[in-house]
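Hey,

Quick one before I head out. I ran the complex with adenosine-5'-diphosphate overnight. Inputs first:
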Amino acid sequence: MLVDPPAPVPGNGAALILQVALDAPLRRVFDYRLPEPRDAAPPPRPGVRIEVPFGRQRLIGILIAVASASEVPQSKLRQALAILDTEPVFDAVTFGLLLWAADYYHHPIGEVFAAALPASLRAGHAAQPTKSFWAPTVSGRAELERPASRRGPQLRALLAWLSEPGRQPQARIPKPFTPAQLRTLAARGWIEALPVEPASPDAAPAVAILDLSAAQTEALGQVSATLGRFQAHLLYGVTGSGKTEVYLRIIAKVVALGGQALVLVPEIALTPQLVARFEERFGVGVAVLHSGLAGIERRDAWRAAHSGAAHIVIGTRSAVFTSLPRLALIIVDEEHDASYKQHEGFRYSARDLAVLRAQRAGVPIVLGSATPSLESMENAAQQRYTMLLLPQRAGAGQVPRMTLIDLKKHACEQGLSQPVLLSIGQHLASGGQVIVFLNRRGYAPTLFCHQCGWVAACAHCDARMTLHQRAAELRCHHCGARSEVPQACAHCAAPLSPVGQGTERVEETLMRLFPEAPLVRLDRDTAAARGGLDAVLAQVHSGAARFLVGTQMLTKGHHFPDVSLVVILDADQGLFATDYRATERLAQTIIQVSGRAGRASRPGEVMIQTEFPDHPLLQRLIHAGYDGFAASALQERREASWPPYMRLALLRAEAREPPRLDEFLRAASARAATLGASGMVTDNGIRVLGPASALIARRADHYRAHLLIESKDRGALQRFLARWVPEIESLELATSMRWSLDVDPLEVD
Ligand code: ADP
Ligand code: ZN
Ligand code: ZN
């Protein structure tokens, strides 16, 4: 069904059928007749928005193709209400990419297109910017350089006025200028209307340009050499090695050539410094796109990209679908980051789609990271990607020294070992900042009765409640349930005690032990407070805060120049997790958090607390770095047949009643068997495993389980899924059950 859109069929317009993708959970397009009257208008082009009747509603969808016939009988075909655009709202490559993605992820096409377009455009707002800004053209600027002639001094004065920055004469041009003069200037080709305020050459403040290191120069040269054709590059450089500087230089070339660059980042809110650096270097030609923007801002940024006015688009995951008619370069910063994968609904990987987009657009892509994903390391090893290394920190930065602290050998005070406490004292005394990392928010993960062993559990999940002391609440981190903190054990009335450490508790302990050192906490709880994140970051940057306690949020691209000590409180959480990706995550986290230390002139120190200092993963990380870890982790993946040596898909389902859940997954598995796939590797190379319970078997009152589908051959897996998904949809239970298919899942859970 979803092949490349056929060329519109010329001829009798009335016979044409519009195939429209609507934001509905159905894996199909909907047929409509053309709206009337059409006269001699050419048929609409695929990619335009169409307003149609749907049941009793009016919906706005995307035209996928124009066909000459429909399977729906003529009498039942409804007529579209309006065609909203003359030009497609996506560039041709993005349109094709979306069709491909709907196919590959086996997701309803209407939801795929809805995910790609800002809400205001889905609601029908114009795709093109409406405001116009007049700006002098090159010949207009040349005219100003010429000596003034006696003719038309007014025109020349207007031209001069327009070339000053900050003019918006469409709103109002001052007397004695007239609109007629504007038209004359435009007719002479001296000015043009632009959809956004023009970037004046001096809009960007002067930035001192650094001398690139040899490695940076090499990386820049390699990428530059591929401008104009597809090539994927893996820019693998330790934190602070100058990756961003390389991005900025390549982008400068792209912009100078008149192209557009797309920059994907994991999370905008956490990377304000990166955005600031781009704006500082490039001025107003930068459009920022992320879900935190208000509707109008988002629409305007999208329009600026679509119209070509924005040279650079920086955005999160969904920005991979931004319409960019002059796309010339894609950058994916922190390419290993899990947030590039959408975790619900349309479960695409923005990183993977970015590579495909670059390939289809015939442009280079740079995947940057200090800890590349194992997939990308393997792609580089197979020479599908070029490997660009930045092995040293830029400027005077030094790589920190890492030590493992054996928790079995040292006494602890609330989870903080003696050597760590000693070191913290020394670093604070010598004016350093200290980061304490713990990937668990709240006060304590368990509230426990020592008398009878009772534990506060969530009533809706197979999980414990986390104690949040500050809010005086128990919270479930899986379903969001909250309850009061019980005064005593529900069983035996003995007093309860919090067991284990969360960031809140570490904060409390450190404030007690180091009362002189101002401390801030960065986790989802403090960031959720209004302005919380900005306030925390400001205190760290200004140096007012000497201590920073936080979770995963700390690992994302901040530059804290004074940090000299990083403490990782519990490396062990990830060491024995069941998921095949857990060790990769742990290694990345350790390296990323460590990267916050010793960024400028201060040498840094990293202390990792563990009960298992001899664990091979930790040993390899310490002694062979991320490289060494990646090599052996890939070896393990190969031996155990996990990605990237195996292709996976996961059918997840959940239900209130366990028997129904089991029945559904067994039925789906039986259908797979009729297609020749079973628990054994079969002729078609597909294996179906399960049903297996999720790690947290019950969440928010729903039982959860899955089937795992694996194949060494991506094509075979795709062919199988294309036949299997309709079979699942036809199951009676499928309609009354929450289920989803995850292609290339990041977690098998
Ligand atoms: P990364 O993106 O790899 O973390 P950045 O590009 O942010 O690294 O560089 C880290 C720091 O080093 C920044 O403050 C940057 O200005 C500086 N820097 C980058 N390249 C150079 C260079 N060639 N010479 C001196 N300083 C540099
Ligand atoms: Zn008890
Ligand atoms: Zn819960």
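The radius of gyration is 29 Å.

Talk tomorrow,
K.
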